[in-house]
Amino acid sequence: MTRAGALALGVALVVGLVACGGKGGDAKTLHPGQLSKLVLQMSDLSGNYSLMENGHGAQFEVPPGPAARTRTTGWVARFRLNSTSRVPLLVQSRVDVYPSEADAQKQLADYAASFVQTNGNGGGPIAVPAIGNGAEAFSLEQGTAPNLTQFFGIAWRHLNLVCFVQTEGVRGSATLVGTVALARAQDKRVAAAS
Fold first, then answer.
1. CA atoms of 41 and 17, how far apart (whole Å)
2. How many Å apart are CA 193 and CA 166, to the nearest integer?
3. Which residue, of 60, 73, 79, 101, has the greatest Cβ tally within 10 A?
4. Using only C-alpha atoms, what is the Rg of the chain?
5. Which strands, in side-by-side order, build the sheet including 161-170?
6. pLDDT at 26 over 50
7. Taking the chain, what is the end-to-end CA distance rounded to the nearest angstrom?
8. Could you give phi then psi for residue 91, rounded to 5 degrees?
9. How confident is the model at residue 123, as a pLDDT?
10. Before 146, cis peptide (omega within 30)?
């Protein structure tokens, strides 16, 4: 299949995809144009941020693991802090669409496996409150004081969507509590589209 054919097939799958369906005839379809509204928006962030990226992301930039091959489309927003406020320096928000809930569950498991790989490198999986239809999280520290950088990431599933939020900042500016709040803000957007 040509690249153009594959792209057309991917768009057709998304347009017809039951992304956030209810039961029986209550199912809704997710239009590809909605993806940009399912990631974090500037209004969700407290601080002076610039939007660095807001699109489908680079072709090579896919979630971790083999389940990413079944991903039909996605959207990534990245924000960078413009001030010295005690908030994360970088915030990433993404949503990826899968053909089924089972495919999305496999992707969430791949996120969990990738979080385990950070063990021994200053981080690893951490407990996280309930978000969506199941969530996984990690923390990571790199560098040394006073330039120690912390990362927190949360991946969760909402039906056949997999969402991911990551924060990065010097110690104390990126926190698990703050990252959970951002994930819940994004999940609220996703639930509203259901």
1. 24
2. 22
3. 79
4. 17
5. 49-55, 73-81, 90-97, 161-170, 149-158, 135-142, 123-126
6. no
7. 33
8. -130, 130
9. 86
10. yes
State the pLDDT at residue 84.
Answer: 77
Can you give the pTM of this predicted structure?
0.82
Q: Is the pLDDT of residue 54 over 50?
A: yes
CB 124 within 8 A of CB 187: no
- Residue 138 and residue 152 in contact, taking contact as beta carbons nearer than 8 Å: yes
User: Do 118 and 138 form a contact (C-beta atoms < 8 A)?
Assistant: yes
The reported pLDDT for the residue numbered 28 is 47
Torsion of CA 77, 82, 87, 89, to 10 degrees: 60
CB within 8 Å of 83: residues ≥ 6 apart = 47, 48
Can you read off the two tokens belonging to residue 132?
Answer: 């969506």
Provide CATH code, domain 3-192. 3.40.1000
- Is the model's pLDDT at 29 over the cut of 60? no
E strand residue ranges, the chain = 49-55, 73-81, 90-97, 123-126, 135-142, 149-158, 161-170
Apex 101 CA angle, 21 and 151, nearest 5: 110
In this prediction, residues 93-110 reach a mean pLDDT of 96
